[in-house]
Amino acid sequence: MKRNVISIVLGGGRGTRLFPLTYSRSKPAVPIAGKYRLVDIPISNCLNSGLNKILVLTQFNSASLNSHIKNSYHFDIFSKGFVDILAAEQNVENESWYQGTADAVRQSMKHLEKYDYDYILILSGDQLYQMDFREMLDFHIENGGDVTIATIPVVAKDATGFGILKSDDDGNITSFYEKPDYEILEGLKSEVSEENKHKGKEYLASMGIYIFTKSILKKMFEDGAGDDFGKDIIPNSIGKYTTLSYQFEGYWTDIGTIESFYEANIDLCQDFPQFNLFSSSPIYTRARMLPPSKINGSYVSKAVFGDGCIIMADKIENSVIGNRTRIDKGSTIVNSYVMGADFYQNTTEIVLNDRKGRPNMGIGKYCYIEKAILDKNCYIGDNVRIIGGKHLQDGDFGTHSIQDGIVVVKKDAVILPGTHIG
């Protein structure tokens, strides 16, 4: 079946709900699972689905995202595949930046004219899932879709936080409600599998993954259908175009908040995590050529390690430890995500800091860290205690912030020896 597709990954806006992780980077550039970036997920799903014409639309805080993509995705000279960046731009026809997800694609359509494609796959750059897009494309083509939306069954208590679609028995979407009130949910149930019905998952939530037939999307833009896919384009397409629901049965989560980001990472440490890093569909990322991690005298349970770590901790439990992390002796890390470092300190600097009692990059001696996220290049001094929990008040406190009881130590932050947080 013909699948002439171009994939567009939306680079995200300000990402305020993920602050401070998005202070100096866009959401898709946030490190996940110790060695990847969030943008690696949709790109890897595309490549694993045989779709190798990929554009990433960027606008806000895009420097680190641009650098990561440039250094990660290279195709041989005989391949027609690419992962290219389309940055937001002002020009003589339009002096405004992107006004929404659909406007970002609309402004980029002129750059797509040099490519041969029949279908456009629109993806978010900040979600965690594994999907074979070929199955969704086949569904779209076989059912004569103009627009196909990937949906996932959810329970009533989660439905109020999503765009909920109601579909008929043939998969045609008949109505759409953005974050509906609980009182009207009963009338929004759709046909789902018996397993999902038994679990109470009878509401179809939009995953923010769309397939458009090229000619239809162009016509929508010409007709001024709106600036946002979820708020404008999708609701306006129902009843006017063949708008289909493609039900996805696997694991999917939207990394929209510090809490969801934290939970998604910590879940990777479980015996059978919901997101399987060890499947036959690899997650691609930048090849950093780092040495293997070195662990000395530590008790380790349910932990995920990146590359190039030097670990002398007493205990690491239920935690993700990122590339180049250094943890000194006597320290304990529990229920935390330590992102690691972008570079190694030289030995001379480490010795000098030890003599002067200054923190080195990484985690010092006899520290205790629980329910925390440590962004990259943190300097944690000796005898530091960081303990998150619901007893803590949300707020920003200079070197760190607290959201939903999770302590987030900012990138490049210096936490002095003996400091207590929590």
Automatic annotation (TrEMBL):
Its EC number is 2.7.7.27. It is an enzyme of class 2 (transferase). Residues 7-269 form the Nucleotidyl transferase domain. It comes from Chryseobacterium antibioticum. NCBIfam families: glgC (TIGR02091), PRK02862.1 (NF002772). Keywords: ATP-binding, Carbohydrate metabolism, Glycogen metabolism, Nucleotide-binding, Nucleotidyltransferase, Transferase. GO terms for molecular function: ATP binding; glucose-1-phosphate adenylyltransferase activity. It comes from the Bacteria. The keyword Nucleotidyltransferase applies. This is Glucose-1-phosphate adenylyltransferase. It holds the Pfam family NTP_transferase. Belongs to the bacterial/plant glucose-1-phosphate adenylyltransferase family. Signal peptide: none annotated. PANTHER family: GLUCOSE-1-PHOSPHATE ADENYLYLTRANSFERASE LARGE SUBUNIT 1, CHLOROPLASTIC-RELATED, GLUCOSE-1-PHOSPHATE ADENYLYLTRANSFERASE-RELATED. GO terms for biological process: glycogen biosynthetic process.
